[in-house]
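User: Need the bound-state model for manganese (II) ion:
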Amino acid sequence: MDDDGDVDDDGDVSDSLGVSNDPDLWVSGVSIRDQFLAPAQIHSLVECAHRRRAHRGFDSARIGSERGLQRREEIRGDSICWITAPLLPAEKVLLEELEHLRLELNREALLGLFELELHYSWYPPGAGYARHVDQPHGRTQRQVSLVLYLNEGWTPAAGGELRIFDAAGRHRDIEPIAGRLVHFLTPEREHAVLPTHSDRMSISGWFRTRD
Ligand code: OGA
Ligand code: MN
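Assistant: Bound-state model below.
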C-alpha cells in the first residue's frame, strides 16, 4: 500500500479497504476474477466491438436521468454501444457465461437478479469517468455492476484504472487487463475510471431486479 491508502493491483489486497481477490462477493462487496473468459474469446469480443463501431453502433455516453441527459466530457468521456439483438456469436457466449454468474449470485444471496443490461464502453486517450454510483436517481433495480475488460497487451503506463472507494473514502485501483471481470454490489459503491492514455475497451453491465 502507498501513502494515500492505495493498494497495488497484484499484491495481497485483503487489507484496510476490505477488498480481497477472493471471488466471494459477499466478503468484500467487490470481486475480481481474472481470465473470466479465455484469451481467444476476449479477442473475438474485441472484434465484435470493432465491427459494431464500424457500423456506427457507438454513441457518446451521457449522464443524468432520462429527463436530463447531457454530454459532459469532463465527467464521462466514453462512447457506448448497447449489446442488443442481433447478437454476434462471441456475444452469445458471453451472455451464457454471465447467465451462470447470475444464477450463482441468486443462489448464494437470493438477490432476485432477473435481467442483465450490457454495453461496450470505449474510452479514447484522455477520457475517464469521474467518481459516481451506478444508479439513476431514485431507482433501485441495478443490484450488481460488472465490468469485463478487453484490453489486450495493457501496460500500467496506460493508466485507465478502475478506482473503487469504500465508505470511508479509501480506494484501490484495478488495472483494466484483458479477461478480468470485476463485479460489485451496486448500491452506494462509488467508483471512477482514471484518465486513460490509450484506447480502453470494456463491457459494462448490471444485473437488475424486476421493475
Ligand atoms: C461504468 C463504469 C468502470 C470501468 O461504466 O459505469 O464505472 O472500469 N465503468 O470501465
Ligand atoms: Mn460505473
